[in-house]
Design goal:
With 112 residues, the protein is mainly α. Helix content is 74%, strand content 0%. It contains six helices and no strands. It has helices spanning 2-11, 16-26, 31-50, 62-71, 74-90, 97-111. The longest helix has 20 residues, at 31-50. The radius of gyration is 13 Å and the shape is globular. The two termini are 20 Å apart. 29% of the residues are buried.
């Protein structure tokens, strides 16, 4: 699912991240699964930052990391990583995944 979130971010389509958040909420994603999704997304975005410097991400991630790097500026990638970290920390508290997904989608939509 981290790949799906990164693809939605890379598409830069207004409402795309919110649509994905709604789908994930309907799947009744647990806080633990959401935390894993956010960690995976952070890793993919970090790979996009490292790719131009010859640091290849995990082999299967190269294509998506390249797409992210082409569609987002480094500043947008860094801001997105910070937002993902913020909501990853929120998963450690007694906050429902639906609330985290809603807030995450709203904040990410503000970047694009």
């Amino acid at each position: 699912d981290g790949e799906l979130l990164c693809q939605a971010i890379a598409r830069r389509r207004r409402g795309g991240v919110a649509e994905l958040a709604v789908r994930l909420e309907k799947k009744k994603l647990s806080r633990e699964a959401l935390a894993v999704l956010l960690e995976r997304s952070q890793a993919l975005l970090a790979g996009a930052l490292l790719l131009p410097y010859g640091r290849a991400p995990v082999p299967g991630d190269r294509e998506l990391a390249g797409l992210i790097g082409k569609r987002l500026t480094n500043a947008e990638i860094m801001r997105t990583i910070e937002i993902l970290k913020k909501y990853h920390r929120a998963c450690g508290y007694n906050v429902g995944p639906g609330h985290v997904l809603g807030a995450l989608a709203a904040e990410l939509e503000g970047i694009f």
